[in-house]
Amino acid sequence: MFPKSASETNYMPDLNRSMSSTHDEVETVVGPSVVVEGDFASEGNILVKGTVSGSVKTARLLTVESGAKILANIKAGDAIVSGEVRGNVKVDNQLELTASAQVMGDINCQVLVVAAGALIHGKIAMRGMEGMEAGAAADKKRPARRFKGEMEAPDEAEMG
Description:
Blueprint: H1 6-9, H2 15-25, E1 26-30, E2 35-37, E3 40-42, E4 45-48, E5 51-53, E6 56-58, E7 61-64, E8 69-71, E9 74-76, E10 78-81, E11 84-86, E12 89-91, E13 94-97, E14 102-104, E15 107-109, E16 111-114, E17 119-121, E18 124-126, H3 130-141, H4 156-159
Parallel strand pairs: 1-4, 2-5, 3-6, 4-7, 5-8, 6-9, 7-10, 8-11, 9-12, 10-13, 11-14, 12-15, 13-16, 14-17, 15-18
């Protein structure tokens, strides 16, 4: 009804721009047919489509695609796992496990996002619970008070 301005008629979102900028940020790609044996370290983003045996370290984002395998301990700034990891995973910030993820090892991260269907076999520790762990350890060290003829009596502090 109203004439469109030149900016409105020529506007076409560049869908490839966001995808290519993400791809440009990936510093190292382990292709689907590649098998890396040994320690693998990078300061940039790593995308794994193949298999890595040994330790994997990056200060930035580690992405493990569906079908990829990491048979190693992982240390990363952030990680998205869709494939298989057999080793301990330590992530400084956020670890995301998609529906196809399989992790056999202990997980240590600040934020954990787990999609329905992801498989985990190991211990999970998340930072932010340090104060609670110290309190629980102090409770375990405190001996129970026993009185003659009684099994166990509560401390005065516990009674209020």
